[in-house]
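re the bet — no i am not wrong, look at it urself. input seq straight from the record:
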Amino acid sequence: MTIALYQQNIVWNDREANYDRIRERLSGVTEKVDIIILPETFSCGFGDNMPVMAEPQDGPSLSFAAEMAARYDALFVATWPVREDDGRVFNRLHWVFPDGTFGTYDKAHTFRVSGEADIIASGNKREIFEWRGWHIKPAVCYDLRFPKWLRNEPIYSVESTQAIEYSTIPALSYDILMVCANWPGTRAEAWKTLLKARAIENLSYVVGVNRVGTDGADIAYSGDSLGSDFKGLPIAECIPGEEQIVLAKLSASALDTFRHHWPFHLDFD
């Protein structure tokens, strides 16, 4: 599995400028990728602008995402604000398949400190989806601070609380945790530490993509986007402060071997 992490410098409140920048940047990726993942609110930036920039579910950002997914025969993952018919606005993560079909996850933990919780409705449903043999859990920014919400649950084929043989060690619900974020540079160390912690405790790969640049509220972002393996070791890292795309290569066999050799999930609380 090859994942393109695009550490984007988001243009504030300008969808078309962001679409054009992404088209240009992705055109420079010469290697085949399976997933393209962008930061939170990739089309407009994160802040009190989101209700103004919110789109209907079938709006221009979904059309753009479908265009990119089809062009690169890859899953396209990003969030943008969506307004429902009842007027509520969600910070909605989308995964869009090459055939144009898609799934969604609404950010569950809206960031009260910034006022997001006052203007954006919270989701209440966990999601896991499958792509090319991998099970993937989506999350958005502040969700990363809540390990219980992101717990990788064992899937038992038999009811047992006793020690079990190697051949019947249960699978885990997901293989990759994907996090789209606008995480300010002043808290960069927390961002990097939490990504690795979620990888270690959940025996999964973690991919976190954050923006760079300064937004319309004059908040600076250092990016620090990275892919971590199940031991918390980096497999791909973006240069802090630089807009760039890096590729993370994930091994299903390495993950399976580690989980069977170190089945820590048998002792999860």
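see?? Residues 2-267 form a domain with the Nitrilase/N-carbamoyl-D-aminoacid amidohydrolase fold (CATH 3.60.110.10). told u. also Residues 158-167 have pLDDT under 50 and may be disordered. so pay up
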